Amino acid sequence: MKNYSVIFILAALTSCASIKKHNEQRDSCIPPEQLKEDVDYAYSKLQQMHPQLYWYISKQELDHKFDSLKQTIKEPLTPLQFYFKLQPVIAGIREGHLSLRIPRRKFTKKEIKKLEHTKGLFSRFEYYISDDHMYIIQNRDSIEGIKPGTEVLSINNIPVSDYIKKYKSLISSDGYNNTFHPYFLKDLFFNFYTAENGLPNTAMIETVYKGEKHTYKLSRESKSDTDLEKDKEMKKRTLDKKVNDYVASSNSYNRTFKFLDKDSTIAYIKVKSFSREYSDEFYKKAFSKIKDAKSPYLIIDVRNNYGGSLQEINNLYSYLADKPFTLIKPSQVTSRGTPLRTNYFRKSTPLEYAFKSIAYPSYFFAQAFSTYKKDGKVYYKMKADKPTKPHKEAFNGKVFVLINGGSFSASSIITAKLKNDKRATLVGEETGGANDGTVAGFYSYQKLPNSQIRFPIGLLLVQPNIDFSDTKKGVAPDVVINESMQDIIDQKDPQLDWIKNEIAKEKENK
């Protein structure tokens, strides 16, 4: 026990020293020549490992972007300042999964605990972004009586439009998609803002609502004992929470199943994230209920679903297929050694590191034999690129799928497949992820040598097993129905309503 105590004390001291060192490095200025080395390092790693680097941009154009960037670096910069110069070039590659990690300040356990005992400053609102405007669409705690639909004009006297223009350049969808930015930016806006401005205890916001301007002072409030008790309760993992994939931070579920009518003719499944955790059990129960109810209609809602597990969407598709199917095409990598670039020991505690060290030989050989060569290209062996049989509980009725600009990655893979196979009617907006696939799967977590900025690079070219559209855009809906900000505020759902009305018409004509 004494030995364990010494290990834990040493680990705690090492952690504190590491945090201090990280924050000091984050605030230091790096000479221009070293920053240029980081630019070259980032590009060389992309060329080595990214299997489809010039999908949406020519080599000539990308070479020019990197060369032009280096010419603008003439004075020392902090890692954060450097991030804001390099990331727009990375975003210009137009691969939605490809992004530098913003160099944020790290917090000690004591600081984290203190933050956990206070309410958020900006996170207690829900936001909507349109063009260069930001609106509050939900005020959960009725702070200052701010009404939904209120536009935020400035934060601490700096126009919000300036921030939006700056942050827009940092993110990209796959290809030339038109819908992804406002969804992703509203979720990431304050990640960028707090990385630049820290976590202040107060902020002044200028707003306008129905032509009237107001200035409010937002303050970070301490949580009451009731709030803290509620937080504890929310973190408890019951079986129901596990199966429906409960997320304590948002007090919501990633998966929801219900019938939308009294006679159970319309089944509804909403998936906010394909996290895979307990998903097999969820779909098993949901489709068993659908079969028992003999429901002729199924609506699958993947709006605002940024993706996740290929295994989960392959399993979900097996409940929708009427014959054997192959979800994705063989996944290309740049070389046989690519699977060994995945940072096996990343984020390991000392104890995990010890166990992983013992298991490493097995991991090494499994990865070493995970590729094969065909027609001069190297591919990674995947279960999802093999034929899969329909599930015995497979649904054979009519399927509608709800999509929008927040449907990304795995959400786009499954919806592209459903559309290609004419297995579903897609309703809503163009997806944020590409129709013809993306580069993700697993990552090599690089670190730029001088700025220490982390740079995860996707290693697998993952494409649905379809006839490609070559549009370089998202999955297009069969029926375009847009949702306005006012619809959200009024809790109206024109996309879902269209499907309900269509089903009602079909019932009348039977």
- What is the architecture of the largest domain at the second tier of CATH? Alpha-Beta Complex
Rough outline = globular
Q: State the share of residues found in helices, binned by percent.
A: 25-40%
Write out the CATH superfamily name of the largest domain.
Answer: 2-enoyl-CoA Hydratase, Chain A, domain 1
Number of helices: 15
Largest sheet: 6 strands, antiparallel
Kindly, what is the distance between the CA atoms of the first and last residues, rounded to a whole number of angstroms? Answer: 74 Å
Structural class assignment: alpha+beta
Low-confidence region ranges: 1-13
The CATH topology of the largest domain comes to 2-enoyl-CoA Hydratase, Chain A, domain 1
Beta-strand share of residues: 15-25%
What's the CATH class label of the largest domain? Alpha Beta
Give the helix/strand layout.
Elements: H1 2-27, H2 32-49, H3 59-72, H4 79-91, H5 109-116, E1 125-130, E2 133-139, E3 150-155, E4 158-159, H6 160-168, H7 180-197, E5 202-209, E6 212-219, H8 225-235, H9 239-243, E7 246-247, E8 252-253, E9 255-259, E10 266-271, H10 279-293, E11 297-301, H11 310-318, E12 331-333, H12 350-368, E13 371-374, E14 377-380, E15 398-403, H13 410-420, E16 425-428, E17 438-447, E18 454-462, E19 479-480, H14 485-489, H15 494-509
Parallel strand pairs: 10-11, 11-15, 15-16, 16-19
Antiparallel strand pairs: 1-2, 2-3, 3-4, 3-5, 5-6, 7-8, 9-10, 12-14, 13-14, 17-18
